Amino acid sequence: MLELKNVSYQVEDELGQKEILHDVNLKIEDKKYVVITGPNGGGKSTLAKLIAGIWKPTAGQILLDGEDITDLGITERARKGIGYAFQQPVRFKGIQVLDLMRIAAGKNLSAAAACEYLSEVGLCAKDYINREINASLSGGELKRIEIATVLARATKLSVFDEPEAGIDLWSFQNLIQVFQSIKKRNAGGSILIISHQERILGIADEIVVIREGQVSTQGPKDEILPGLIGSADATMECRKNGIPHTGSDEKEDCREEDQE
Ligand SMILES: Nc1ncnc2c1ncn2[C@@H]1O[C@H](COP(=O)(O)OP(=O)(O)OP(=O)(O)O)[C@@H](O)[C@H]1O
Ligand SMILES: [Mg+2]
To answer: 45 CB less than 6 Å from ligand 1?
Structure first.
């Protein structure tokens, strides 16, 4: 189980101290599929980075199965079974897909095993296994490779920050299946996904809403989801007549408002 106790995160910017997360308490039980959602800028990615060990909280503690891991970095946390996929995947110049998957797995993964993970995320594995992780990969390809690396780790906790970003519609359906199969396969582990997508929220056990740096709502999906859609907790920046808009027509609506 992962536990966050009174976790806060402050940064120093040109206006002085800025608190991005304030006194967050959160428990992620084993075998649970938890989705974190909430408005843009609420602090979700920051929270994911604190859990993965990329950044360190300025106050509070992070415990994994009761062990304090607050001071451990990303590599040590990865060894303990915390896998993380960025919202904006990183490109590693000079490294091939197979190397990256081996680094992620922490062992000499066979090419055939790596191919299986790549196939699972909808990539034609043999075309990708020796590709370099550079600018020639599209955003969606890179995102899928990254999800495959998290699969390869067979983790205690897999953290995905907006895995749907940049993935086309056909693959999105696949992505939902990928998460369902991770859930089945990852016997003791749990999955933490940050997402704005209703379909990803729909397959969660629990939903946590992060808003203005704090947990504003938390509970079983069946309790939280019905009240969430269209509420302030799900609000995006684009509003029309006070009603929040989501979906592909959002940009058009904002443009109309600009002209009014
Ligand atoms: N180093 C930093 N300096 C100043 N502000 C920062 C820093 N890092 C993050 N922030 C701010 O903290 C807030 C939370 O950012 P974060 O990326 O965690 O939001 P988010 O909930 O993931 O948003 P989104 O849904 O858009 O991905 C934002 O307002 C962001 O601009
Ligand atoms: Mg984010």
So the answer is: yes
Which one, of 57, 64, 86, lies nearest residue 146 by Cα? 86
Q: Is 42 in the pocket of ligand 1 (CB under 6 A)?
A: yes
pLDDT tens digits for 96-110?
A: 999 888 888 877 889
CATH code of the domain in which 166 resides: 3.40.50.300
Residue 43 Cβ inside 6 Å of ligand 1? The answer reads yes
- Ligand positioned closest to the Cα atom of 214: 1
**Number of structural domains found in the chain:** 1
Using the mean position of ligand 1's atoms as its centre, give its distance from the Cα of residue 45 in Å: 7
Which domain covers residue 153, as residue numbers? 28-54+71-245
Whole-angstrom Cα distance, residue 154 to residue 146? 14
What does the pLDDT look like over 215-248, one tens digit per residue? 999 999 999 998 887 676 655 444 444 444 444 4
| CB of 163 closer than 6 angstroms to any ligand 1 atom | no
**Residue 102 forms beta bridges with which residues?**
none
